[in-house]
Amino acid sequence: MQPALSVDCRHRHNALLITVTLKSSGRQFPVAPGETVLEAAQRAGIALPYSCRAGVCGSCKATLLEGSCSYPRNPPVALHGVAPERHAVLLCQAVPCSDLLIEAREVTSVEDIARRRLEVVVGDKRPLAPDVTGLRLYPAEGQPRLNWLPGQYLDVLLEDGKRRPFSIACGPQPDAAIELHVRHVAGGGFTSWVHDELQPGDRLRIEGPLGTFVPREDSERPMIFMAGGTGFAPVKAIVEHFVALGTRRSMRVYWGARSLADLYQLPLARSWTQAAHDLRFEAVLSDPAQAAAAGLREGLVHEAVLRDQPDLSGHDLYMSGPPAMVDVGRELFCAAGLPEERLYYDSFEYAPDVLAQILAARAGLHTV
Ligand SMILES: Cc1cc2nc3c(=O)[nH]c(=O)nc-3n(C[C@H](O)[C@H](O)[C@H](O)COP(=O)(O)OP(=O)(O)OC[C@H]3O[C@@H](n4cnc5c(N)ncnc54)[C@H](O)[C@@H]3O)c2cc1C
Ligand code: FES
Questions:
Q1: pTM score, whole prediction
Q2: CA quadruple 311, 316, 321, 324: dihedral positive or negative?
Q3: Would residue 297 count as lying in a domain?
């Protein structure tokens, strides 16, 4: 049967039980009416890759081998430019119209960790850079500890039901601390409040852990890490994990920003080179005057990666940061030989509700 995509599936009878089968493992799970493939998999305790949950970043891309689905929520923006014959499907948005057979990467390492909601107290708040605030959150009295894998993120739950995703900048700590690096977004409601008003002792509601940007330990390949701005947060957590493990694998860590002040934990990143068996760290500034004054590499961070490693076919690559950096990294790193399934990333998109509004506004403009 040829896979097919449609805008909605009016022919699906509501009572029809739909089953998704994952080709590589043979695992199957049911999908309730209106549910996306990703939601149904999560309900069944099966971890498929995702990041933005809004149809934009592409990390949930899989191959549809049989069946048909629709995109009644957000349009599958991340599939633009993908040749139709590749039968790509975005699991975070695709609602099945029939039974599906899918080829998707499963991330079994995150499956055993319970996702929970809890109240946390702000233990520490400090400026890390002019527009980046460091937070340390602790479970409030009587609340459970959060468990997570390095690189995962959490959602801050806002009073109006909206959520704001932030990566956890450390692995689980003995004192249960959760470290966040929050960039102040111009015009952003939550990050402005964090920057201007949040105080130690204040409480937040969070849900986590989320995401599949986690260490992959089933490989002996050399690793490259690329962070842009506060994309450093999850990369820090994953690199610290591998350093603590005493890995013998080679690690090349790149951190890009505009100015020196944006590289807000430079001494820490440099200290990894002493602690690890084979780790090199490169700081890259896009502002030429700042780069020259600081004696650092100049340019865009992905350019530095490609200059040092023009052939990426033998590497695993982790990247995290602004969507523009992640987009260009995806394209150029795969063109440099990196197999797509060895590229792991979190793209720091805005929250799903904001993206949905922006995409809906764009669609409205296009139909006028
Ligand atoms: C997986 C993941 C991990 C992340 N981790 C981090 C991290 O560790 N650190 C970090 O700093 N960031 C991180 N981010 C990004 C972070 O979640 C966003 O910066 C944050 O959600 C912004 O929230 P806000 O309420 O301040 O801004 P919002 O109020 O959501 O606004 C964001 C921007 O969109 C504009 N906007 C809002 N509504 C509309 C609309 N309807 N139409 C047009 N424009 C609109 C606003 O003016 C503003 O410029 C992560 C994102 C993801 C997806
Ligand atoms: S496009 Fe589906 S998680 Fe980002």
A1: 0.94
A2: positive
A3: yes
